[in-house]
């Protein structure tokens, strides 16, 4: 072979293996085919659903159960869910994760998130850490948005664009050790905003010198009386 033939041969072999790798990646995402909305995600790594850098995912599966398929083995195995750098996700709906009973770590970071519906994370009894960060379209926490997460230890809401925390956002979310709300343009904290957080160890609202809070309604920290 001439030198050019050799170079061409190497290039050809190399690009072929890249094409092969890509198609294998698409075929073997290992997420159950029933969940069409996860077609751009991978479930390859043990116990993780990874939707990072997906440009097509707009919502989570309507249900994690099916009458025709037994998905228990899959749903119970999932410990971690990553939604990172996914601009097409704009809302987390009520009970979106119901059925992923063993979920421990959930990250929703740098997405197009605008709305967290009431009770979005309800029934996640094993949830240990919830990270909702760098979502620049998230400007308010609606009532009950983070309610009923009974055993969670750390909730990070760092670096979103949250201006308003409405009343009873965290109702029945009992076991938070650290709640981090730093780096948000917080303006209004309504009455009973933190009601229900019975065992908060550390609550970070903002870090000096940027503390833009304008209004803290009476009883905003009502939960303190339980501590
Ligand atoms: C579904 O699968 C799980 C685990 O394999 C099993 O324990 C359970 O009995 C199955 N349920 C039904 C309804 O077949």
UniProtKB/TrEMBL annotation:
The keyword Electron transport does not apply. It comes from the Eukaryota. It holds the Pfam family LRR_5. The keyword Repeat applies. Keywords: Leucine-rich repeat, Repeat, Signal. GO terms for cellular component: plasma membrane. SUPFAM superfamilies: L domain-like (SSF52058). Residues 1-17 form the signal peptide. This is Uncharacterized protein.
């Amino acid at each position: 072979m001439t030198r050019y033939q050799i170079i061409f041969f190497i290039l050809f072999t190399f690009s072929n293996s890249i094409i092969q790798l890509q198609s294998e990646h698409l075929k073997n995402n290992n997420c159950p085919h029933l969940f069409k909305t996860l077609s751009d995600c991978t479930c390859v790594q043990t116990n993780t659903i990874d939707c990072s850098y997906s440009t097509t995912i707009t919502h989570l599966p309507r249900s994690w159960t099916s009458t025709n398929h037994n998905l228990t083995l899959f749903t119970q195995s999932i410990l971690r869910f990553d939604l990172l750098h996914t601009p097409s996700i704009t809302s987390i709906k009520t009970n979106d994760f119901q059925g992923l009973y063993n979920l421990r770590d959930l990250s929703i970071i740098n997405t197009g998130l605008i709305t967290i519906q009431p009770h979005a994370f309800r029934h996640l009894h094993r949830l240990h850490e919830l990270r909702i960060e760098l979502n620049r379209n998230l400007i308010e926490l609606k009532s009950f948005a983070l309610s009923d997460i009974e055993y969670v230890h750390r909730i990070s809401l760092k670096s979103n664009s949250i201006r308003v925390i409405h009343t009873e956002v965290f109702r029945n979310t009992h076991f938070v050790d650290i709640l981090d709300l730093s780096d948000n343009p917080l303006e209004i904290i309504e009455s009973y905003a933190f009601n229900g957080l019975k065992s908060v160890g550390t609550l970070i609202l903002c870090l000096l010198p940027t503390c833009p809070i304008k209004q803290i309604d009476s009883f905003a920290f009502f939960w303190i009386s339980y501590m």
